[in-house]
Write a structure and sequence with these properties.
The chain has about 260 residues and is mainly alpha-helical. The chain is built from 13 helices and no strands. It has helices spanning about 5-10, 15-45, 50-55, 60-65, 70-95, 105, 110-115, 120-135, 145-160, 165-170, 180-210, 220-235, 240-250.
């Protein structure tokens, strides 16, 4: 066992705790930067069709031979690059510059790719609308990088929280007998808004739970550490607050099954 593991095995003083926290902060920032670099390099390599130059029959064969990456992972990397490029292009089109990558991990967690696949247009339309509104509210002044990143992050979270069926398909589907098309669209829109608000509230509760008990603590320990009391104080069950906490940790809405 190395010295770092030995130090972590026992209690530490406040100075050491702060030092370990700063080390963790740096490591997280490194991971965020790595996601950015990965998305950009995947995009460049695929556009250059590097596998053909190196004699591989396909992108997936290239990824397997060169990096030991399976087919599904190889194509998930392309999904990551495609969504990242769409976001960057949208920000550049609206503002003339892109600050998205200053907040990469918040904007586009890798786990979000599966949820966003096939919904890129829905996402970029929402981002463009929000950026335009923010730009007008700022009187045409340049938006700070943090503001741009927050807008994109919120749009990503909102689209991920929406029903699996894209909005356009929902709104143009046939209305039931006896219901006008316009009325049906209003009902569908209201339902989508309600679900979006519910998911946003669940994420908010999960973030609050993480402020009380950090992510590395198990569900059982979290319950004993104060989440049961918090759940009671805000009027929900312990099971519900634990589900919200898992949702905030994973970003996967399936954590809310049974809410």
């Amino acid at each position: 066992m190395d010295s770092e593991h030995q130090e972590q095995a026992g209690p530490v003083d406040a100075a050491r705790a702060r030092e370990l926290t700063e080390q963790l902060r740096t490591a997280i920032q490194d991971v965020r930067a790595a996601v950015l670099v990965l998305a950009r390099r995947v995009r460049v390599a695929h556009q250059a069709r590097v596998w053909t130059v190196l004699g591989h029959p396909s992108w997936s064969a290239y990824a397997l031979t060169e990096f030991g990456i399976g087919r599904s992972t190889a194509y998930r990397l392309l999904d990551l690059a495609a969504v990242a490029e769409a976001i960057e292009d949208t920000v550049r089109a609206e503002l003339g510059v892109s600050h998205v990558w200053d907040n990469t991990d918040l904007v586009l967690p890798v786990r979000a790719v599966v949820d966003l696949k096939g919904r890129t247009a829905e996402l970029t339309d929402l981002i463009a609308e929000r950026l335009t509104d923010a730009h007008e509210e700022a009187g045409g002044a340049a938006l700070p990088a943090g503001t741009v990143g927050s807008i994109v992050a919120a749009a990503v979270a909102e689209v991920r929280a929406r029903p699996d069926v894209p909005a356009a398909e929902l709104e143009t589907g046939p209305a039931p007998d006896g219901v006008t098309t316009e009325a049906w669209r209003r009902h569908v829109s209201a339902g989508r808004d309600a679900i979006t608000q519910q998911r946003a509230a669940q994420l908010g509760i999960g973030a609050l739970a993480l402020e009380v008990v950090p992510a590395y603590v198990s569900d059982r320990q979290a319950e004993d550490a104060g989440l049961a009391r918090l759940a009671n104080d805000i009027g929900i069950t312990t099971e519900e607050i634990l589900a919200c906490r898992r949702y905030a940790i994973s970003g996967d809405v399936r954590a809310m099954d049974g809410w």
